[in-house]
Amino acid sequence: MINIESDLPTELAKPARRALVGAGYVHLDQFTQLSEAEILQLHGMGPKAMEQLRRALAAKGLTFGDK
What we know:
Layout: H1 14-22, H2 36-40, H3 47-59
């Protein structure tokens, strides 16, 4: 198994992390090009995971895209 460098929140549940990594999302800055609705469509993503992503993005001065 290849270890991918990621800055996703460490507290993300395993299903949410698998959903994001499986879709190719491993860096927070990638989410600036995506809407919250797009991420919520991934199997394994729910309200708690979205809030964790929002907080992690905010800590870096980033937000989800407005698609």
